[in-house]
Give the backbone structure.
Amino acid sequence: MLAKGGAEVIALSRTQADLDSLKAEEPAIQTVCVDLFDIEATLKKIESLGDIHLLVNNAGIAILGPFEEAKPDDFDKIFAVNVKAPMFIAQVVAKKMIAGHFAGAIVNVSSQASKKALKDHTLYCSTKASLDMLTKSMALELGPHNIRVNAVNPTVTMTDMGKLGWSDPGKAKPMLDQIPLGRFAEVEEVVHAIVYLLSDKASMISGTILPVDGGFLAR
């Protein structure tokens, strides 16, 4: 959607096949294959990309299981991708914005799981809660440089992975029963929120944690 709107888009992923598929769908998009778990390689690559005016921190992983079975390695891995990578990627991008004296906007993709504990989601919920506070802290410190920072917090979203994980009616019903609109989010509904927060139409919005959850958090 950003590319169709005229933005010059650079997409990062650890999976070359996904990048190839994206490139076939929208040839104007530049692609970079890098694993965010390797933060040094990631930051080096981003340093080489030139000035960036808009940033979406969308990468994330989920490691699920009971609290009592969580492992230190799982903690390190999920926090590395879900919190550490967004922070230091944004740091590199923001330093370029500040040095170039131009305004910018950053959107972190969080989750409704940052606001409401979910069974077997201890590590995931913890990373998303951290990402929300990171978003607010960034907004506070980067605001004087005319850099806006916000987060979107979707409910279950019907990506290919979401469809696989929530296609079982028995699993989906308890969650759907908690969503006043009675359905999960479509990809485009989350994308529209992100594009809005990146745009000049949101020029006075910063530090916002925006649920895209059909009312799930209203309960």
In short: The radius of gyration is 17 Å. The chain has seven helices and six strands. The chain has one domain: 57-218. The mean pLDDT is 96.
